[in-house]
Structures are given as C-alpha cells and as structure tokens.
C-alpha cells in the first residue's frame, strides 16, 4: 500500500493540448502531484486508466471529446474495477451530466474556465481527502468518514478575488452573454453600475477566458475595448 508521503499520481484527460499543459503546470505549482499520463481522447483515457503499471490515484477528466465522453470513460473503467478518483474538468453545465458524473464516482466537478486559486482549492481538498482515506485503512470509523466528506466540502467556499461579488459577476456574465459583444460602458448602462465596476468584472471574465477583449474602432478618437462572450468554453 502506498503511504501519504508518496506523490499523488494523476492522469489528465482533455482534447485541448493547452488544457493538458495547464493542468500539468497547476499540479506542479501545487506540489505533491505526479502526472503519469496525458490523454487527448476517451479511448486513450480508458487504456491509461486500466493499465495496471499506470494505476493512478486521480484523473482530471474532460466531459466532451471527439471520440467519446467522460461518462463513457467512467462507465468502461468502473466496469473493469478501476476505482481511481475523478475530478471532472469541463465547460459542460448540464445538471444531468453532472449528476451522472457524480454517480459514477466523480468527487469534484470543476467548470471551465477556472482560475488557479479555484483549481488549487479543489486539488488541495482532494489531497486531504486522499490523505484521510489512506490513514483510515480498510475499516473506517464514523469520525474517519465524516472527515473524508468534510475535506471535499471545504473547496466549495472558495471566494472570488477581493472586491468581486458572486451576484454581480453573474449579472455581468448574463448581460454579456445576452448582448454577445459589449463595452464596459454599455454593460454599466444595462445594469446601472459604474463603468469602472463594470470594467473590473469584464476584465476578470477575460482573465479566466470567459470573455475575449477586442478593439472597437469608431469614427474618431482612441478605439474602445469591447468584450466578447466566449461561448466556446461552455462546449468543452
């Protein structure tokens, strides 16, 4: 049996090479994790997860891939007795998909795009869950079980960057999604907030790749910065 001092072995699965490299970089930054395989599709993920020499503690699993889904992967590997823990990492927000992923053993569901602090919170929560499960051994007490579940719940309260509020972020996101492309001034008029506040939230959305910045050229003067809602991230 491996002990709590060993690095947590991770398989990352995503059809976007950039996402795979981002996962690797974030895991390295968090420390204590070892990427043992990177897979760009569902078939490759099934092979990696069922290979005994590659047995991992955790899989970061995308939901939508060209050759299958994360659900397909989990159904196949669970049928073969693979008990690797899974954190789903996807832009898919369909509640039924989330429910199915959880039913198949996903311990966390991280929605793209995400910030490093949010990723770190999820991965640190898993680290504590993993540590507690190893410490409990084969027979857990009620205290052990409560501690394992509590460690996973601690990641759900990760705050936004200082000065940003969840409710306002949702309002700005909804307004930008509705209009497709807007400037900070246009969003501020829609929501009745100051232009500076509007710009701060739009910049945050751009930082986490929920929005894209573009230059809007008018008849005269400097070009304005407009923000385009990035619908693509919600399809992965």
UniProtKB/TrEMBL annotation:
InterPro entries: 2C-system_Tx_regulators, CheY-like_superfamily, Sig_transdc_resp-reg_cit/mal, Sig_transdc_resp-reg_receiver, WH_DNA-bd_sf. Its main location: cytoplasm. It is found in: Cytoplasm. Residues 9-127 form the Response regulatory domain. It comes from the Bacteria. The modification 4-aspartylphosphate is found at residue 62. Keywords: Activator, Cytoplasm, DNA-binding, Phosphoprotein, Transcription, Transcription regulation, Two-component regulatory system. This is Transcriptional regulatory protein.
């Amino acid at each position: 049996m491996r002990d709590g001092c060993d690095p947590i072995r991770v398989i990352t699965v995503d059809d976007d090479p950039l996402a795979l490299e981002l996962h690797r970089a974030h895991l390295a930054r968090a420390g204590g994790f070892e990427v043992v395989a990177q897979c760009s599709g569902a078939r490759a993920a099934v092979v990696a997860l069922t290979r005994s020499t590659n047995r991992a503690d955790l899989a970061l699993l995308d939901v939508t891939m060209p050759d299958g889904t994360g659900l397909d992967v989990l159904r196949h590997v669970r049928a073969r007795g693979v008990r690797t823990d899974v954190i789903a990492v996807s832009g898919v927000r369909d509640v039924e998909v989330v429910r199915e992923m959880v039913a198949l053993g996903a311990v966390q569901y991280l929605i793209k795009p995400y910030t490093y602090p949010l990723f770190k919170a999820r991965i640190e929560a898993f680290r504590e869950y993993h540590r507690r499960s190893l410490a409990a051994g084969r027979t857990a007490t009620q205290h052990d079980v409560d501690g394992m579940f509590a460690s996973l719940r601690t990641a759900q309260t990760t705050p936004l960057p200082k000065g940003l509020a969840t409710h306002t972020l949702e309002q700005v996101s909804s307004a930008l999604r509705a209009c497709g492309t807007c400037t900070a001034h246009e969003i501020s008029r829609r929501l009745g907030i100051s232009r500076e506040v509007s710009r701060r939230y739009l910049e945050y959305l751009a930082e986490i790749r929920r929005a894209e910045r573009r230059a809007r050229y008018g008849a005269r003067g400097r070009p304005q910065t407009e923000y385009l809602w990035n619908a693509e991230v919600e399809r992965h």
